[in-house]
Design brief:
Blueprint lengths: L1 H11 L2 H18 L8 H12 L1
């Protein structure tokens, strides 16, 4: 999807496809670090706190 959005952006100049490319690129960086920013981050932190008690 990342490559497609970049190719589409270079062919059309569509800003939304560039934004999608940047979002996918950022997600790739986070996945490489072993962490994903998401909606369940608060829940994950609660689980960590519960298990350390």
């Amino acid at each position: 999807m990342r490559d497609f959005s970049w190719k589409y952006f270079t062919l059309t100049g569509d800003v939304e496809s560039f934004m999608l490319y940047k979002e996918m690129d950022q997600m790739g960086v986070l996945e490489q670090d072993g962490a994903l920013a998401g909606e369940n981050d608060d829940y994950a932190m609660m689980e960590l706190e519960d298990s350390s008690s």
